[in-house]
Amino acid sequence: MGGRDDAGGGNSSYGRKAFKRSRAHFQDRITADGRDGWPVEAGRYRLVVSRACPWASRALVSRRLLGLEDAVSLAVADPIQDDRSWRFTLDPDGRDPVLGIRYLSEAYDRRGTDYPGGVSVPAVVDVPSGKLVTNDYQQITLDFATEWTALHREGAPDLYPEKLRDEIDAVMDDVYRDVNNGVYRSGFATGQEEYEAACTALFRRLESLEERLERQRYLVGDTITEADIRLFTTLVRFDPVYHGHFKCNRWKLTESRVLWGYARDLYQTPGFGDTVDFDHIKRHYYQVHTGVNPSGIVPIGPDLSGWTTPHHREELGGRPFGDGTPPGPVPPGEEIPATGRP
Fold first, then answer.
1. Residue 5 confidence (pLDDT)
2. Residue 76: beta bridge partners?
3. How would you classify the pairing of strands 123-126 and 73-76?
4. For the chain, which has fewer Cβ within 10 Å, the N-terminal or C-terminal residue?
5. What is the overall mean pLDDT for the chain?
6. Share of the chain above pLDDT 90, in %
7. Catalytic one among 184, 242, 285, 286?
């Protein structure tokens, strides 16, 4: 998000130029064998996120569930970008305390220049060199699950079980095309037909997911997988921003008994809701996308108190962490402020 969601021309271009999601340009992988030159190593890498961004939020959830907090440090960018993109104005003196930079673009520039797609999160930066390693939002979490196993916490779940990968991949492809990316294609459409096609595909896919989740607690198998993480990060933003700001308004998440129950179930599962900052989400979308919302006014609603109400999804069975255990408390300094919680 950021750069990747932009057609060029800064914040005011959102919704005014044809939308096309760029592929991640820096696709090096951090692996157990270090085949790309980046071996898994505790303390070497810093994950840079915005809590506003659904693509970055995948990495936040994965990191928490797998217990990688001590192995991979965390930098949180200001949800309000300027035209240089993600900045560290939440930190003292406006600099990330580990990388010593004011803008994420500085880590990108140390890796290369004239890169397409802009400066996006999530990004993993090599701390010793200050260089960007990867901004491959599709691969980072898969590698957390499969390449970082030596540093997983005891009791960490298997988020990408080998025997279910074909089914997980198929579900994630559908969710990516019509839901994760579909809300953006709706919100940044520049014409009526473009908008209606994207919005129709979005709700058609949501309805098919309702049918799937009517009879099973999780998307694939009986435990949480990568597929659930990727759907959750869009659903948790649906009523606060996508329904109004992106005109995805055939119905609200709270009006879908199945999806609302499923989203609450995950939100109340350690590792999901404790990474969500609704204040960052709302301020980013409504204040940064000035091409869509020129006034920059952030709406008061919706009422978020329902996120903590009973969901009864446990009646479908399933074991959130399989044979594993929930993650421990949120590390000091990573707690969500009261302003960002229901």
1. 43
2. 49
3. unpaired
4. C
5. 94
6. 90
7. 184
On the question of pLDDT at 12 being above 70, the answer is no
CA dist 284 → 29, 80, 277, 296 (Å): 29, 5, 11, 10
Q: Which amino acid is at 266?
A: L
The pair of three-digit structure tokens given for residue 115, joined into one six-digit string: 């890169």
Residue 11 banded pLDDT, cuts 50, 70, 90: low
Can you give the pLDDT at residue 115? Answer: 84
State mean pLDDT over 117-139: 96
Give yes or no: 242 in active site.
no
* Residue 302 confidence (pLDDT): 97
CA dist., res. 166 & res. 286, Å (int): 37
Q: What is the pLDDT of residue 250?
A: 98
In whole angstroms, give the CA distance from residue 177 to residue 171. 10
Task: Please give the C-alpha separations between residue 139 and each of 54, 56, 99, 113, in angstroms, as whole numbers.
Answer: 15, 12, 23, 22
The model's pTM: 0.95
Single-letter amino acid code for the residue at 249: N
Contact criterion met (CB below 8 Å) for 12 and 127: no
Rounded mean pLDDT, 73-78: 98
The b-or-e profile of 110-134 (16+ CB within 10 A means b, else e) is bbeeebebbbbbbbbbbeeebbbbb
Nearest to 137 by CA among 257, 43, 225, 26: 26
For the cut 50, the answer to whether the pLDDT of residue 4 exceeds it is no
Q: Is the pLDDT of residue 10 over 60?
A: no
Does residue 184 have an active-site annotation? yes
**CA 185 to CA 182: how far, in whole Å?**
5
